Amino acid sequence: MKKIAVFASGRGSDFFAVLEQVKQGKIAAEVVCVISDHARPPVFDIARENNIPTHRVNRKQFSAAVDYAEYLLKLLRSYQTDMILLAGYLKLIPAPIVEYYRNAIINIHPALLPNFGGKGFYGEKVHQAVIESGVKITGVTIHFVDEHYDQGTVIIQEKVNVIPGDTPKTLGKRVLAVEHRLLPEVVRAYCAGYIQMVDGKVVWSR
What we know:
The protein is an alpha/beta fold. It has one domain (about 1-120, about 140-155, about 180-205): Rossmann fold (3-Layer(aba) Sandwich), CATH 3.40.50. The chain has helices at about 15-25, 40-50, 65-80, 95-100, 125-135, 170-190, and strands at about 1-5, 30-35, 55, 85, 105-110, 135-145, 155-160, 195-200, 200-205. The strands form 2 sheets. It has a 7-stranded mixed beta sheet, covered by helices on one side. Helix 1 runs parallel beside helix 6 (about 170-190) and helix 5 packs across helix 6. The protein starts with a strand and ends with a strand.
């Protein structure tokens, strides 16, 4: 059974979608902790209601980047973490963490990467940019995390049509519905060993 650490900055609705399937036994995993860069994010309420430990860890708490990375790594190892799930986490994961958990950190992004990705592209900002660009199709990307924002190897993508008259809120609602369905499927497959990296490419074995 995989031990999952969740990183989130806000509501954590994607995390909740995964947690529900963990609780139902559909995902062979245990969520061991939730980490946020904020002191009182709504996601902590979800965690505490389910007796999951929470930790606020922010780069500003440390004088040096290396100390921040070392603290995070020590914390993750204390929970015997097998994989990390980013569920609306807005900070860059330190390189030492990425290296230690190479191909074991999964992120979800509300657009079809590499479009509308990178630092500063999150939430309704993404959907606003999509609408302003005039594209007809957006979607959801789930990918492994590397040392850069939204540049890791793609695991899966699903398209969502942009409808005339869409606002960031209406488009975001449809994209979020796909996120809530797709992310648990990917986490379930990863925990079952059905998703692997082979020669730099994602291979689904089932």
